[in-house]
Design a protein that fits this description.
D-Maltodextrin-Binding Protein, domain 2; 21 helices; globular; 2 domains
Length: 413
Amino acid sequence: MRYALKAVLTGSTFLCFSAISHAANLEVTHWWTSGGEAAAVKVLADQFNKSGTDTWVDAAIAGSGNGARPVIVSRILGGNPMGATQLNHGRQAEELVQAGLMTDLTELAEKEGWATFVRPASLLESCTFEGKIYCVPLNIHSWQWMWTNPQAFRDAGVEPPKNLEEFIAAAPKLKEKGTVPLATGDTWQVSAIHTVLTAAVGGKDLYLKVNKDHDAEAARGPEMRKVWEAFAALRADADPGYVGRSWNEATAMVMTGKAGGQIMGDWAQGEFSLAGKVAGQDYDCLPGLGDKPLLEAGGDAIYFPKNKDPEVTKAQMRLASIILSKEAQVAFNLAKGSVPVRGDVDMNAANACMKKGIAILENPDNIIPSGDMLRAPDTQGQMEGLAAEFFADPNMTIEDAQERYAQIVEQAQ
C-alpha cells in the first residue's frame, strides 16, 4: 500500500497538526485487542501512568493490523495525529518518516545508549532513516511457530507431531475424529502461513532470495514448489469456517481441542497464558514448525507523530524511555508472549515455549528478517492476495500460483 503522500502534500509546505487538548493526555493507537494483547498493553499503560502526571489514553482499533494501519496513516496525513502509535518493525512507516511526519528520537536514543542493548541490531536499524532514529523497538515477535493440542492428537489415536511432516500425516486421523486439523482465519493469516513455509520448508537461503533479493528464478524453482505443495496440503486441512475468523478465535479452537494446531506468531502464547494453560502440558509449540530453527526478528515498534505541543513531546519522550526500561520490557513481553528487545534482562519467568524461542534467537544464524522489513507494502499486499486466493480455491494449481508469485517477486521493490 502506498499512501499518496504527494497528493496530500501538494500545494502546502507543511501540515497543521491539531494539538492534544491537554498535555497530560497521550493518545496511543494500536490493534492489541485480543484478551492476551489487552493484558499486555495494560501493563505498559499502567507503567506510563504511574511514572508521572501524564495519562495514557487508549485508542485501540479493533481487528488486525491490516485494518488498523490505514486508519493510523490517514489520521497522521490528515493533520490529526495521535500521540503515539503501534506499527511493525520494518517499512510500514517509511514514507511517513521520509515526509518528516514522525518525531526524531535520536537525542534520547544516544543519551540512553539504545544501540548498546537493543538486539538484534536490525531492530534499531529498521527505525533509522538517514542516520536518525524514529521509533522505539518494543518486542521481538516471530511468525514461525505451530501451536498444537497434544491431547487432540492422542484422542485421534496418533502421537502429537514433532514437525510439519508429522502434522500433515496425522491430519486424516484428526478428520476421522471430527477434529479440524488446522485452525486459521482471515487473509493475512493464510498469507503468513505461506511466508512461514518459505523458511520452514524452503530454508533460510530461499527465504532471503525471494524476499530480500527478489530472485524470480528462485521463486520459480523446485524448492519453492515444495513450499507451494506444503501450502496446498494445509489448504486441504483447514475447515471452511476459516473465512472471517480472527486469529485468537483460531487459537481458542486449538486450546479447546476443536483443532489440532495453528500456525501463528508467538503472540498466541498470550491467549494460552490468559486462559491458565501450561506450555508443554496443555499445549505444545513447534518453533520453525519443528523442522528448522529459524525465527524472524520482527515485532512491534512505537512511533511518535510530530505535534506542536511541547508538553506532548515531553510525554512522548517519557513513554519512549519507559518502553525500553528493563521493568517494562520484562512485564510487557511476559504478558504478550514475545521476547524483549533488550539483551540484558532476566527472563527466568518465561514459559517453556518462550524459552525455546529465546534460545533460538541467541544464535544470529537462526535469525531471519521479517517480511515487513523486506517487503514494501505494495508487494506485501499482492502476496497476501495471491495466498488468500490460492487457499480459498482448491482448483487453483500449484503451477499457476507459483508463476504468479514469481511475477510478484520479479516486480518487487
